[in-house]
Every structure is written in C-alpha cells, then in structure tokens.
Amino acid sequence: MVAGAARRIVNIAHRGASAHAPEHTIAAYDLALEMGADFIEHDLHVTSDGILVAIHDANLERTTGYSDLVRAMSLDDVRALDAGSWFNDAHPERGRAGYVGLQVPTMAEIFERYGRSTKYYVEVKDPHLNPGAEKKFVDIVRDLGMMDHAVEGGVFVQSFDPDSLARFRAIEPRLVLIRLFSLIQNKVIMLEEMAETATYAAGIGADKFNVDEHLVSRAHAAGLEVCPFTVDTEGEMSGLIESGVDGIFTNYPDRLAALTRG
Fold first, then answer.
1. Which carries the bigger pLDDT value, residue 262 or residue 128?
2. Which residues pair with 174 in a beta bridge?
3. In 10 A of CB 1, how many CB atoms?
4. Helix crossing, 234-243 with 253-260: angle to 10°?
5. Beta pairing partners, 159
6. DSSP code of 151?
7. Is the pTM of this model over 0.85?
8. Given pLDDT bands bounded at 50, 70 and 90, which one contains residue 133?
C-alpha cells in the first residue's frame, strides 16, 4: 500500500480525462467523472463576443486545426469547429467515432450539465489579454445559482497571476483561490512567497518537479494545501503522495483512483 494512501488524495482531472478523450470536451469531463475524479479542471478564454469557453491554448490550431485566436472569434465561429477529430488522429488506439465533431464547451454549459454533482478547478488564461474575464466568471456562478456550491469548496479558482486572483477576491471574496507556480517559479520563489500567498489563497498548485516533502511541510505550516501538476505515472504519483501532497492534477484520473484505493 502506498505510504500516505490512508489520506484522502484529491483526484483532479487535468482538462478532463485528457489522456483518454479530447481535452476540454464534454466527453473528457464525462469520462473523468466515470473514472473517479473529484474535480474536473477548466482553462478559460473569452471569445470576441464575451463568452467564456473551455480551451487551453489562446490559439485554436492544436485542437481544431483553425489558426486564429479564441479572442478574435465569436462563440458561433468557435462552436462551428471540430474539437475532437484531432484526438483520433493523434491517438488512433484510443480514438472513438463519437469524438468526431465535438464542440468547445462554454463554462455556462459545463455548470449546467454537472451542477453540484462534481467540483471544478477553473483558470482564466491570459487574464491581462482578457479584461473583465474574472467578473464574467463570477457572474456565471451567480446567475446559475452555483455560488453556495462554490464557497463550500465546489469551485476552486486558480491562476499564475496574483493580480487576477486579487480581482477575483475583490469581486467575490468568498471564492476559494489557488495560486499556481510554474517550473520557472522554482521552489525558492514559492518558499519566499509562501506567507504572502497564505493571506489570500487556500492552496498552491505547483509543477511536480518543484514539489518535495520540505515544500509540502512548509505549505501545510502556512495553512496551504499542495496539489502538483501534471502527474501521469504511478511512480510519480506514489512519490508525491509520500511527500504529503493533498491532491494531484493528472491526465489519467483512472490511474490515480486505482492507486489511492490501495
């Protein structure tokens, strides 16, 4: 049995079950939940007509083949694109006919589909290029009656940009905030900023290569949870669980679910 497996390790499906289905599609989210994910994760961009859509890249090319930016296209234009066929081409052994023609979902559609039945990790991408995106997200949460679920820990808002988190806090101080740190923002920087981060955030999301027992211990002492990204092998999962992490972002929520079941 993995050391520490008696703890509840939070299973965060990175872009859905993105090793098994086209990332940031309803198929990937559905599959992640079937596999035992506790949270489904969403990267958000804003279309030219002001709609928050779930897609990782600012450019649509990687998952739709269309080279324009999300913020330069209307929702109707984005929805006209096929966001699923690329997965079948890239991973024919895992491809399915049902992936062809999948659409980029909006955040509102995601909330409407799953409601309070699951939990959500949400990041507004490129907030400096999408002014007002924080308010748009909070408005969706409020309009769909999800705020109680959010403040009870059902919606975590994460960002590499502390200014974006500050805007979220000003708009809705009850939201649970998570500060992200990239590999470049190394362990030394995280330790230096730990006390300040703890004044506004409930946890940190850190590149897996910067996470060790010392970092986790310092974070826990400051009242912060630690969830590393993106962790896909059982060996890495086991090592990070042993270091004391609270959750893991993974493209393979099935692997993490099996491992934490012992």
1. 128
2. none
3. 8
4. 50
5. 179
6. I
7. yes
8. very high
In the DSSP assignment, the letter for residue 12 is: E
CA pair distance 106, 52, nearest whole angstrom = 6
Is residue 146 within 8 A of residue 164, CB to CB? The reply is: no
- Do residues 258 and 5 make contact, with C-beta atoms less than 8 angstroms apart? no
**Consecutive H or E run containing 90:** helix 85-90
Q: How many residues can be counted in the chain?
A: 262
Per-residue pLDDT averaged across 87-108, rounded?
Answer: 98
Q: Which long-range contacts (CB under 8 A, 24 or more apart) does 176-180 make?
A: 176/150, 176/151, 176/202, 177/201, 177/202, 178/121, 178/202, 178/203, 178/204, 178/205, 178/227, 179/203, 179/204, 179/205, 180/123, 180/204, 180/205, 180/206
- The residue ranges of every structural domain in the chain are 10-260
CA–CA gap between residue 94 and residue 2 (Å, rounded): 29
Structure tokens at 198: 């703890």
Under 8 Å between Cβ of 43 and 58: no
- Structure-token pair, residue 30: 């559905």
Please give the distance of CA 251 from its chain centroid, rounded to a whole number: 11
Angle subtended by helix axes 107-114 and 133-143, to nearest 10: 30
Domain with residues 10-260, CATH architecture: Alpha-Beta Barrel (3.20)
Q: Would you call 233 helix, strand, or coil by DSSP?
A: coil
The rounded distance, in Å, linking the Cα atoms of 100 and 79 is: 13
Tell me, what's the pLDDT at 6? Answer: 59
Answer positive or negative: Cα dihedral of 45, 46, 48, 51.
positive
* Strands 39-46, 52-54: pairing kind: antiparallel
What residue spans of 172-249 are helical by DSSP H?
187-192, 194-197, 213-221, 234-243
| CA atoms of 30 and 8, how far apart (whole Å) | 22
Enzyme catalytic residues: 14, 56
